[in-house]
């Protein structure tokens, strides 16, 4: 493992597989216990430093750390010294003085976790920074896909929606391509970032053309809170061209599965009947997130870190 997990690109194929295999072993160990807890990180302190609202990610990291018996401190920018003008650097020095062993950081500014990693001695995990990356989400998505599809070499994964504002899309393209999958991005031209041609993925504008025979489709949330202009005519028009309904779902391979990082805009990105259907792994993704984040914290804090 690298010292910090700031990007899905920090992990080569062997390291990514090591994280996923570790998560699988942890799941097996905990599955046989009445009390789902291990003493592995007893005496270590994990700080959840969240400058952005979050439910799934914050709770997932908190539960992961507690299942490894670590002490957990939850820091929210709202109601803290940040609201009084304290800078990220000053907050980092405070955490350093308190002896935090790991800091899980979510921030609205891209690159904030990387800056933080230069100010603290502990390990830093990027829990989502701006529109940049969300590496543990990519790991849990890969873990979920491996459980259902096996080896991802040569698997066709279609990622659909607001790629421009999605840190999940960036991390998943890096992670899935590292694991050998063939990734296709589908979005309107207005929701594709500059430089996407350099990503290890193909780009398609027609969802109906991209889905036939795909092993999995990952729908992305339309992030209206990050949109300052009109990126598509109407929600209805977006749904008509890029929403996943029953008809489009039928175009997948017979074993094809559906993912979504959440929260979902039901009826816009994805129909409820598909989101709640038997091929949907959306709820499973949430559960797998705890296991994968346990593996990340375990590997970072147990000494399996490259110098």
UniProtKB/TrEMBL annotation:
<comment type="pathway">
    <text>Pyrimidine metabolism; UMP biosynthesis via de novo pathway; (S)-dihydroorotate from bicarbonate: step 2/3.</text>
</comment>
<dbReference type="InterPro" id="IPR006132">
    <property type="entry name" value="Asp/Orn_carbamoyltranf_P-bd"/>
</dbReference>
<protein>
    <recommendedName>
        <fullName>Aspartate carbamoyltransferase</fullName>
        <ecNumber>2.1.3.2</ecNumber>
    </recommendedName>
</protein>
<feature type="binding site">
    <location>
        <position position="167"/>
    </location>
    <ligand>
        <name>L-aspartate</name>
    </ligand>
</feature>
<dbReference type="GO" id="GO:0004070">
    <property type="term" value="F:aspartate carbamoyltransferase activity"/>
</dbReference>
<feature type="binding site">
    <location>
        <position position="263"/>
    </location>
    <ligand>
        <name>carbamoyl phosphate</name>
    </ligand>
</feature>
<dbReference type="GO" id="GO:0005829">
    <property type="term" value="C:cytosol"/>
</dbReference>
<feature type="binding site">
    <location>
        <position position="84"/>
    </location>
    <ligand>
        <name>L-aspartate</name>
    </ligand>
</feature>
<dbReference type="GO" id="GO:0006520">
    <property type="term" value="P:amino acid metabolic process"/>
</dbReference>
<feature type="binding site">
    <location>
        <position position="262"/>
    </location>
    <ligand>
        <name>carbamoyl phosphate</name>
    </ligand>
</feature>
<dbReference type="GO" id="GO:0044205">
    <property type="term" value="P:'de novo' UMP biosynthetic process"/>
</dbReference>
<comment type="function">
    <text>Catalyzes the condensation of carbamoyl phosphate and aspartate to form carbamoyl aspartate and inorganic phosphate, the committed step in the de novo pyrimidine nucleotide biosynthesis pathway.</text>
</comment>
<feature type="domain" description="Aspartate/ornithine carbamoyltransferase Asp/Orn-binding">
    <location>
        <begin position="154"/>
        <end position="300"/>
    </location>
</feature>
<feature type="binding site">
    <location>
        <position position="56"/>
    </location>
    <ligand>
        <name>carbamoyl phosphate</name>
    </ligand>
</feature>
<feature type="binding site">
    <location>
        <position position="57"/>
    </location>
    <ligand>
        <name>carbamoyl phosphate</name>
    </ligand>
</feature>
<dbReference type="InterPro" id="IPR006131">
    <property type="entry name" value="Asp_carbamoyltransf_Asp/Orn-bd"/>
</dbReference>
<dbReference type="InterPro" id="IPR006130">
    <property type="entry name" value="Asp/Orn_carbamoylTrfase"/>
</dbReference>
<feature type="binding site">
    <location>
        <position position="221"/>
    </location>
    <ligand>
        <name>L-aspartate</name>
    </ligand>
</feature>
<dbReference type="GO" id="GO:0006207">
    <property type="term" value="P:'de novo' pyrimidine nucleobase biosynthetic process"/>
</dbReference>
<dbReference type="Pfam" id="PF00185">
    <property type="entry name" value="OTCace"/>
</dbReference>
<feature type="binding site">
    <location>
        <position position="137"/>
    </location>
    <ligand>
        <name>carbamoyl phosphate</name>
    </ligand>
</feature>
<dbReference type="InterPro" id="IPR002082">
    <property type="entry name" value="Asp_carbamoyltransf"/>
</dbReference>
<comment type="subunit">
    <text>Heterododecamer (2C3:3R2) of six catalytic PyrB chains organized as two trimers (C3), and six regulatory PyrI chains organized as three dimers (R2).</text>
</comment>
<dbReference type="GO" id="GO:0016597">
    <property type="term" value="F:amino acid binding"/>
</dbReference>
<dbReference type="Pfam" id="PF02729">
    <property type="entry name" value="OTCace_N"/>
</dbReference>
<feature type="binding site">
    <location>
        <position position="134"/>
    </location>
    <ligand>
        <name>carbamoyl phosphate</name>
    </ligand>
</feature>
<keyword id="KW-0808">Transferase</keyword>
<comment type="similarity">
    <text>Belongs to the aspartate/ornithine carbamoyltransferase superfamily. ATCase family.</text>
</comment>
<dbReference type="InterPro" id="IPR036901">
    <property type="entry name" value="Asp/Orn_carbamoylTrfase_sf"/>
</dbReference>
<keyword id="KW-0665">Pyrimidine biosynthesis</keyword>
<feature type="domain" description="Aspartate/ornithine carbamoyltransferase carbamoyl-P binding">
    <location>
        <begin position="3"/>
        <end position="146"/>
    </location>
</feature>
<feature type="binding site">
    <location>
        <position position="106"/>
    </location>
    <ligand>
        <name>carbamoyl phosphate</name>
    </ligand>
</feature>
């Amino acid at each position: 493992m690298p010292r910090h997990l700031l990007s899905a690109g920090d992990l080569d194929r062997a390291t990514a597989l090591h994280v996923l295999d570790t998560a699988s072993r942890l799941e097996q160990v905990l599955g046989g216990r009445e009390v789902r807890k291990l003493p592995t990180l007893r005496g270590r302190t994990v700080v959840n430093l969240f400058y952005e609202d979050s439910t799934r990610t914050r709770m997932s990291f908190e539960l992961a750390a507690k299942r490894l018996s670590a002490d957990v401190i939850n820091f929210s920018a709202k109601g803290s010294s940040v609201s009084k003008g304290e800078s990220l650097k000053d907050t980092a020095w405070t955490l350093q003085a308190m002896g935090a062993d790991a800091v899980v950081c979510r921030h609205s500014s891209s690159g904030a976790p990387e800056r933080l990693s230069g100010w603290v001695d502990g390990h830093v995990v990027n829990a989502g920074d701006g529109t940049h990356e969300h590496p543990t989400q990519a790991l849990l998505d890969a873990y979920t896909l491996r459980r259902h599809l096996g080896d991802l070499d040569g698997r066709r994964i279609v990622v659909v929606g607001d790629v421009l504002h999605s840190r999940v899309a960036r991390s998943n393209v890096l992670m899935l391509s590292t694991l050998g999958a063939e990734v296709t991005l589908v979005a309107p031209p207005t929701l594709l970032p500059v430089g996407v041609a350099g990503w290890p993925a193909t780009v398609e504008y027609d969802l109906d053309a991209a889905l036939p025979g795909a092993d999995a489709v990952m729908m992305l949330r339309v992030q209206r809170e990050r949109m300052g202009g009109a990126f598509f005519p109407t929600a209805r028009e977006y749904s008509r061209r890029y929403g996943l309904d029953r008809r489009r779902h039928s175009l997948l391979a017979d074993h094809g599965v559906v993912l979504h990082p959440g929260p979902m805009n039901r009826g816009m990105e994805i129909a409820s009947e598909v989101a709640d259907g038997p091929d949907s792994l959306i709820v499973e993704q949430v559960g797998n997130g705890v296991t994968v984040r346990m593996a990340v914290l375990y590997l970072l804090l147990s000494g399996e870190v490259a110098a």
